[in-house]
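Appendix B. Chain record.
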Amino acid sequence: MISFFIHYGTHFIVPIGVAYWGYPEKFKWSLFVLWAAILIDIDHLWANPIFDPDRCSILFHPLHSIWAIIGYILLLAPRKTRIYGIALCLHMVADSLDCLF
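Structure tokens predicted for this chain:
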């Protein structure tokens, strides 16, 4: 049960703080982008079964692969894409925390 709160807290609560302190002048827009990163979980639809509570998403699904993660990290460098990189990397952190449990 604790893993549920940590995982979804990282997906939905932590972005509020990131948007509030990191992008206060564009709070609503940045929060939308941070929450929209959950859409990369669409790659779960290609797995069989779609949801397996014992499966770690990291390195299993295509949008959670090492190459995708490297791409998300590279998005952190340019100022114009930084919020997208933060959102996607935060999503990877949330999924990684879930793997620990």
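Further analysis of this model is presented in Appendix C.
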